[in-house]
Specification:
A: 238 residues, alpha/beta, 2-enoyl-CoA Hydratase, Chain A, domain 1, 7-stranded mixed β-sheet, two-stranded parallel sheet, 9 strands, B: 309 residues, 12% strand
């Protein structure tokens, strides 16, 4: 689905969400109230400037204090890779955006990620992965790094990696693998109204971080949950 | 093995940069108080690395545990930069996440994270990336409970990729000259954008752009340390005592601080241009300054100290 199709399915009665320089912001009606929308469109990389524009929108939503949910729609590149971005503290700006989303969720504004295209690395962590519930649409393609780059770094032949990717969700790019690790909670049905599906996700959200439980249940992260629990158990006993 | 060796070394003579993760932890905390959680004897090893014919580590490249620091109970994690570049794999990440979740229950005086990481371990990329997101949420929960989370950065692998984002989530950061904080590493920028954008072999450029001095001068880190354990210990103790709250006021202040930085330095090409605008008299001299001279320089830069993180 394109962003325009998503917004039409979310807001049949209209909205004021706009896209400028690949950055999405605005709001629309939901359940008698409203939902704030931010995001990245068009496979745009996220740099220091964009991160601070999005965090401004999130902090404004928190300041409104109405408990309105925040939807983070993502079709991005990775973080913007440049000397200028690193000189200006990209790590601080991306962390700041993630912290704003985490604060919003703590402050009673449920945060929902919606990945409908690509996303990778720092841009993915600072946006979609900083929401309470991350939903995806079929065709989305989250990744940490594409397989040719993985081949270069790991010095393994690409065809061997492609073979391994079929059976091993833990390293391979793609939506199914991110669902298996628990990073993506749910894949939505594009043929049904998104407004109902998003509303249900907000109503059914659970406290705490469900991702390692989902990763264990789905087999994409077989040991993370047990290791985290073992650490807590031993820390208690010490 | 490493623990025995660490015990026999004078902690004051240890180079932070050269030390192993376990040596750093043992030397940093009060003598004899470190109790490791999931120690190497438990053999919690990556289930994924054998697929790539790669060797595994009994601790998956991270040491976590409890200790006291100046008599106060703390939880502590230290990444081992010499194993897979300190990168986040499934178990590595889960140990850090578990430690932070334990902090919510145990309410230690602080959680210390000794970063030494290139970011996500590509062989376990999806698990590593998800663990980084879980870590950031857990840090926010711990901070919101009033427990400072302090990052110490001075290791061989620096603090790159998702490690840089986690560092930006901490309450306070101490960094040494050798510590580098960045999202994209020099090689990553060069590979994707060319050597004209970033020449990764220009080590002076790397230190100027990502190194501890630039981060300290611009407020990206809150303390600058000599490359010794006592310096990091002293910095950690000082930072624990003045950790900012995690609330809307802090994030509004951080928004203003970072917007101001972009407005003032957004057109700078090089770190020396930024330092000049910050009021540093002789920016060319900064890379060669010793710790005392650099501390004196920092003391004159208003932007270096803040509660906006």
């Amino acid at each position: 689905m394109t962003l325009a199709e998503i917004l039409a399915s979310l807001f049949p009665e209209g909205h004021d969400v706009t896209v400028r320089d690949g950055l999405v912001s605005g709001a629309g009606p939901l359940s008698g109230g409203r939902i704030t929308v931010i995001g990245i469109d068009g496979d745009t990389p996220l740099g220091v400037d964009g991160a601070l524009q999005l965090s401004r929108c999130v902090l404004d939503a928190i300041r409104a204090g109405d408990g309105a949910p925040i939807l983070v729609a993502v079709d991005s590149d990775s973080q913007r890779m440049s000397r200028r971005d690193e000189l200006l503290g990209l790590n601080e700006c991306l962390a700041h955006l993630a912290k704003a989303l985490l604060l919003a969720d703590r402050s009673g504004h449920p945060t929902i990620g919606l990945i409908y295209g690509h996303s990778a690395a720092g841009a993915f962590i600072a946006t979609a992965l900083a929401t309470r519930i991350l939903a995806a649409l079929p065709g989305a393609n989250p990744s940490v790094m594409d397989l040719p780059s993985v081949a270069r770094v790991t010095k393994l032949p690409l065809d061997k990696l492609e073979d391994m990717a079929k059976s091993t969700p833990v390293f391979a790019p793609g939506l199914d693998n991110m669902v298996a690790t628990g990073a993506v909670h749910v894949v939505l049905d594009p043929d049904k109204p998104l407004v109902d599906q998003i509303r249900d996700l907000i109503a059914d959200r659970e406290p705490g971080d469900a991702r390692d439980r989902l990763g264990a249940e789905r087999g994409g992260r077989p040991v993370a949950r047990d290791v985290a629990r073992a650490v807590i158990d031993q820390a208690r006993r010490g | 093995m490493a623990g025995d060796r660490a015990a026999s070394i004078d902690p004051n003579a240890l180079s932070w940069y050269e030390a192993s993760a376990r040596q750093r932890v043992v030397a940093l905390v009060d003598p004899g108080t470190f109790q490791e959680i999931l120690p190497p004897a438990e053999r919690r090893m990556s289930p994924h690395l054998p697929l790539f014919d790669l060797p595994r580590a009994f601790d998956d490249g991270i040491v976590v545990g409890r200790a006291t620091l100046d008599g106060s109970r703390i939880l502590i994690a230290a990444q081992e930069g010499r194993f897979m570049g300190g990168a986040f794999g499934e178990i590595h990440g889960a140990k850090l996440v578990g430690l932070l979740r334990a902090a919510l229950e145990l309410k230690p005086r602080a959680v210390l994270i000794l970063f030494d990481t290139g970011g996500v371990r590509l062989q376990e990329a999806n698990a590593g990336e998800t663990a980084i997101a879980e870590t950031m949420r857990a840090i926010v929960d711990v901070r919101a409970a009033g427990i400072p989370v302090i990052g110490l950065i001075g290791g061989r692998a620096g603090c790159y990729g998702g490690g840089g984002l986690i560092a930006g989530t901490c309450s306070r950061l101490a960094v040494s000259e050798g510590g580098r904080i960045s999202v994209s590493g020099p090689e990553v920028i060069e590979t994707n954008k060319g050597a004209e954008e970033f020449d990764s072999r220009d080590r002076a450029l790397v230190w100027r752009t990502m190194g501890g001095k630039h981060r300290r001068l611009t407020g990206g880190a809150d303390a600058f340390c000599a490359d010794t354990v006592p310096a990091f210990r002293q910095a950690a103790l000082a930072l624990i005592g003045r950790a900012p709250a995690f609330d809307r006021d802090t994030l509004e202040a951080e928004q203003a601080r970072l917007e101001d930085r972009l407005a003032r330095f957004g057109d700078c090409r090089d770190a020396t241009d930024v330092w000049r605008r910050l009021g540093v008299n002789d920016p060319e001299a900064v890379p060669a300054m010793d710790t005392d001279a650099f501390d004196a320089t920092v003391a004159r830069v208003r932007e270096a100290d803040h509660d906006a993180r």
